[in-house]
Amino acid sequence: MNKAFVREPDQETRVFCPQCGSVGTQVGAATLDRHVRPEFRMRLRQEAWYCGSGNCTTAYFNHLGVTVLISELQTTVFPHDPAASLCACFPFSFDQIMADADSRSPLQIRELYRLSQTPEARCSELAIDGQCCMKEIQRHYFRLLNPSPPM
Ligand SMILES: [Zn+2]
């Protein structure tokens, strides 16, 4: 395979949110088509990145610093909307993570993991960042179990 066409997730491909400086997650045109309201869609073309920072109002951005805001999306997004599902494929709320953390037994998360392995899981198509949500959900779970001291 020609090396030039292999996109490797190395330092050079990192792109940072122009608003908050977080590292973006690259998304494709299909993800943008699905989530950006039509009147704002043309601002970004085929290639964009998603800012996952909960403190930032930017949703997608590109190399040139062009942005689409969270408020310009078709959908609501956690944590900007605390009631929004964390999973794009199956409804899964932050309350469910808290319940699992309270009982110190991630039964609901395990069930979601099982679902995430089925053909009904279409993260790359449905998720706001094109990624499976399990990593993010586990991160929240472990953070609830082991809260870090405020900085
Ligand atoms: Zn940002």
Quick tags:
151 residues; alpha+beta; N-terminal domain of TfIIb; 2 domains; globular; binds zinc ion
A few lines on this structure:
By secondary structure, this protein is α+β, with helices and mostly antiparallel strands. The protein has helices spanning 29-35, 38-41, 94-103, 107-116, 123-126, 134-145, and strands at 25-27, 48-50, 58-61, 67-69.
Give a description of the structure:
The chain is an alpha+beta fold and 151 residues long. It folds into two domains: 13-74, N-terminal domain of TfIIb, CATH 2.20.25.270; 76-146, no CATH class. It is built from six helices and four strands, in the order βααβββαααα. It has helices spanning 29-35, 38-41, 94-103, 107-116, 123-126, 134-145, and strands at residues 25-27, 48-50, 58-61, 67-69. Strands 1-2-3-4 form a four-stranded antiparallel β-sheet. α3 (94-103) packs across α6. The mean pLDDT is 91. The structure holds zinc ion. Zinc ion binds next to loops. Residues 17, 19-20, 22, 51, 53, 56, 58 line the site of zinc ion.
